[in-house]
Amino acid sequence: MSIRSPLLMGILLSLGVGCSGSENSAQSSTPVADGGISDAADSAGEDGAIAPTDGGHSAPLMYTPCHTESRVGSLEITLDDGFTSVQGQIYNRVNPGHVPRVAESEGPCRLLRPKTLLCEPRCEVGTTCGNEGECEIQPAALSVGTITIHGLTDPVEMTAGPPVYYYSHRGQLTHPAFQPGTQISMHASGVDDLDEFTLWGEGLAPLEIQEDPLPLEVGVPSTLRWTAPSDEGEAMMHLVLSIANHGGTPGQIECEVPDTGEFTFPLSLTDALLTLGYSGFPAVWLTRRTATSVENQLGCIQFIVQSKAGLDIAIPGLTSCSDDTDCPDGQGCGPDLTCGENN
User: Fold this and answer.
1) CB burial class (10 A; 0-12, 13-18, 19+) of residue 41?
2) Whole-angstrom Cα distance, residue 343 to residue 328?
3) 286: which strand partners?
4) H helices of the chain, where?
5) Which is nearest to 156 in space by CA: 80, 86, 82, 73?
6) pLDDT tens track for 213-253
7) Phi, psi angles (nearest 5°) of residue 4
8) Cβ atoms within 10 Å, residue 116
């Protein structure tokens, strides 16, 4: 397994999907600011819910990431290769350029294309083009007060300051920072006119995926495999398939699927994605995660606990390269990081 695309994560964020946030969710509940869940979630019954506790408060844990149209921020605990990170950022409004266009959808998957926003005259510095073709103030990061995380192996308390207001735990966490099934809470103290809020998550098992690259070919179904957890928990799998990460990203596939250990991408979407073109080092990103969210005066803020892994994609006729030495004799490495005779 070799993911060598340093631009990939930035590209995923530019499409507004990254490895967190989705329009698809397993439940239609609306979390509220005190860490509870609205009547819509309560009516769902006990299936898919646990009762985390912290200081006498309890609420069922449902999978409710923010919709991209309303997401203004995300706080994430990430179990990665060799370390656990705690970080996130909140903005005062949605950035319209970060909300992708849904070109096609099938089942739990969507083919996302970049949204074209055109403003005439061009927007000045400090503003951005909005959905209605008019310039609006650029979204700005802000503080939501002190953020405290309970349920990890080490205590975590974070503040964020100007100008970027980026929350990040300073210092090394014990790795892994949580055990599977552990109840985790994230509390923001609030600041000025912004109310405090609490969101919940659950400790996850590390993500183990197949070793061989995922084959991707027109007319041939592509099945992704990973090791399902031994105990059924509250997590879902968030999948992002991106095959053009250099020289422009025309689209990618995003899916939200149960954590069963196997998923076959809809053939109609993979065929459509391949027709948009590809570049070097195509990859699929797998994220096992829990997700809860809160709606406040800013928009939707989500709390993600996740375990991540990346896998190469094998496309017939594609040889990825970092330089000419990676290419067969007579071929060179092009600016899109693919080998070719005319490069």
Assistant:
1) buried
2) 12
3) 239, 309
4) 8-14, 39-42, 267-275
5) 86
6) 999 999 999 999 999 998 777 899 999 999 987 666 789 99
7) -120, 35
8) 8
CA–CA gap between residue 159 and residue 335 (Å, rounded): 41
Separation CA 179–CA 206 (nearest Å):
10
Helices and strands (DSSP H and E) totals, the chain = 3, 23
Are the beta carbons of 285 and 240 closer than 8 angstroms? yes
Distance CA 325, CA 171 (A): 40
- CA–CA gap between residue 69 and residue 289 (Å, rounded): 20
Is 112:102 a contact under the CB 8 Å cutoff? yes
Give the domain ranges of the chain.
Answer: 8-340
HSE of 61, CA atoms in CB hemisphere, 13 A: 26
Confidence category of residue 336, pLDDT binned at 50, 70, 90: very high
pLDDT of residue 46: 34
Q: What pLDDT, on a 0 to 100 scale, did the predictor assign at position 287?
A: 97
Give the span between the Cα atoms of 299 and 297, in whole angstroms.
6
The amino acid present at 41, given as its one-letter code, is A
The structure's pTM equals 0.82
Spatial separation of the C-alpha atoms in residues 169 and 171, rounded to whole Å: 6
Query: Mean pLDDT, to the nearest integer, of 126-139?
Result: 92
The encoded tokens of residue 7 equal: 């631009």
Quote the tokens at residue 36. 């509870």
Query: What does pLDDT average to over the chain?
Result: 84
DSSP percent split of the chain into helix, strand, coil, nearest 5: 10, 35, 55
Q: What does the pLDDT look like over 167-224, one tens digit per residue?
A: 999 988 999 999 999 999 999 999 988 999 999 999 999 999 999 999 999 999 999 9
pLDDT band, residue 98 (cuts 50/70/90): confident
Q: Could you tell me which of 49, 57, 51 has the C-alpha nearest to residue 29?
A: 49
